[in-house]
Design brief:
9% strand; eight-stranded antiparallel β-sheet; globular; 3 domains; alpha+beta
Length: 473
């Protein structure tokens, strides 16, 4: 007996799908586009600070003195970090909650390693530039709503899989957008579901923690955190300098072959609770890192057990790499970028479908057109002002988007607005590459910088081609 969805279920699912899409459209677009770019945020950090000296190794004995020098005169900080060379990031960086400095291969402190434009990008994806606690909850709620969109979309289109390769490219604009939306949705369903679930997890971990603590831990939220992420070890106060190098050498000895320390976190620096967490990358595992705990004197205390502990703990500590595609090499990164762009197009085409169904144009069409094509321009111009000129650029980013929306409303012509914004983005990308080369000189031809700049030129060519194909009037 064939399975068939009832007409009422299909109708109600389509209605809920439309309303969910409208409610999340603009925010989902920003989160998807910034998330696609954030797949390569480590490479963007290196590109933004191209003059930092790079090396795939560092002498562990040099870290202790460099850390002490770095911390002199620092404001009080809850944490300090030593980010070690790792695949895709061949540099050592010392960080506090307030500043960051590179560590040169010879053990001396190098220049600042701050990368505010990359933070602009990642903060948009994680928090939509809102206060972090509220922003992460909102973005995670979008992940939950994406789950609802996927389910309602499947239920509202009974022929979705049957028409998976049916694409009408010419003719009715609404049908073209509908086919684009449905085809990309079907082809990327596993990826979309994974992104939705893992994205929802980040911000909803707090409410889940509260629910679990009330149900199983008598309301003790700290006990839940300790059960999942490991608790603070009992430490003996240490008066001497931190023995970071000693802790690193022991971690290497205790780790399986091929595992590499990738960071050291100094918890509660310069207090009686000061201790070290050494994060170690296991190349054959999806977990972000195993953690080894040491006291300030470099004495081993405990291994948290992310690599071989409870399955739930391993799963939770694997969410980050799974969400951002930071596993399996650059082939996986490229796949994530392609699928992320597809999800971005799905978000845009969903709103386009609704707009064409209305059978009339008004300010909503103009504002949406300006936002969609103004956002790439905003990324480019904010990169020029921040990376090349060193100017704070969050306000510039949002100002460009508002100006693009105003331009679209003023011209009141979709094709012309797209043409102008696409051409401006192409020109801006070329200017960004030239500006990067002028600022960093020969360093712009070293390491990852020429790869990023080459990619920007390719995108500029695509944008120029899109602009050329738009009708003049």
């Amino acid at each position: 007996m064939a399975f068939k969805l009832s007409p009422n279920l299909v109708k109600n699912s389509l209605s809920s799908h439309s309303w969910l899409g409208l409610l999340t459209g603009v925010l989902m677009y920003w989160v998807c586009l910034s998330g696609t770019l954030a797949v390569v945020y480590p490479e963007l950090e290196r590109w933004e600070t191209a003059s930092v000296e790079e090396s795939e190794t560092i002498d562990t004995s040099a870290i202790d003195s460099a850390y002490q020098t770095f911390m002199e005169g620092q404001e009080a900080t809850e944490h300090a970090y030593v980010l070690l060379p790792r695949p895709g990031m061949p540099r050592t960086v010392l960080m506090s909650d307030h500043s960051a400095r590179a560590l040169n291969p010879d053990g001396s402190l190098g220049e600042t390693a701050e990368h505010p434009w990359t933070h602009l990008l990642t903060d948009l994806h994680l928090y939509l530039h809102l206060p972090q606690s509220w922003g992460m909850i909102l973005v995670s709620a979008l992940g939950a709503m994406l789950c609802g969109l996927i389910i309602s979309g499947l239920l509202s289109h009974p022929r979705l899989f049957k028409d998976a390769f049916h694409f009408r490219r010419k003719g009715n604009a609404r049908l073209e957008q509908t086919d684009l939306h449905n085809r990309l949705s079907v082809w990327g369903i596993p990826f979309h579901i994974m992104i939705a679930i893992t994205g929802a997890f980040f911000g909803l971990a707090g409410p889940l923690n509260l629910a679990v603590s009330e149900a199983f831990f008598d309301g003790d939220r700290e006990e839940v955190i300790e059960a999942v992420y490991g608790g603070h070890p009992e430490v003996t106060p240490h008066d001497g300098p931190l023995e970071i190098g000693k802790a690193l050498r022991q971690t290497i000895e205790m780790s399986p072959e091929g595992a590499t320390p990738i960071y050291v976190t100094v918890e509660h620096p310069d207090t009686e609770e000061e201790h070290l967490l050494v994060g170690t990358h296991y190349p054959d595992r999806l977990i972000y890192a195993e953690q080894f705990q040491f006291d300030g004197a470099g004495n081993f205390l405990n291994r948290v057990g992310f690599s071989d502990g409870e399955p739930g703990r391993q799963a939770i500590f694997s969410v980050y790499r799974l969400h951002f595609g930071h596993f399996g090499g650059y082939g996986v990164r490229l796949l994530y970028i392609a699928l992320g762009l597809a999800l971005t197009v799905v978000s845009v085409s969903g709103i386009n479908i609704w707009l064409t169904k209305r059978k009339h144009r008004d300010y909503l069409n103009n504002l949406w057109n300006g936002i969609v094509w103004g956002t790439p321009l905003a990324f480019v111009l904010s990169a020029i002002t921040q990376v090349v000129l060193g100017l704070p650029s969050v306000l510039i980013f949002w100002g460009v988007i508002l100006a693009s929306a105003a331009l679209a409303q003023w011209r009141d012509r979709d094709a012309q607005t797209r043409r102008w914004l696409q051409a401006a983005t192409a020109a801006g990308l070329v200017a960004l590459v030239l500006g990067h080369t002028l600022r960093f000189g020969s360093d712009s031809f070293e390491g990852i910088a020429p790869v990023i700049n080459g990619g920007l030129i390719v995108v500029a060519g695509v944008m120029a081609l899109l602009a050329k194909r738009q009708p003049v009037n």
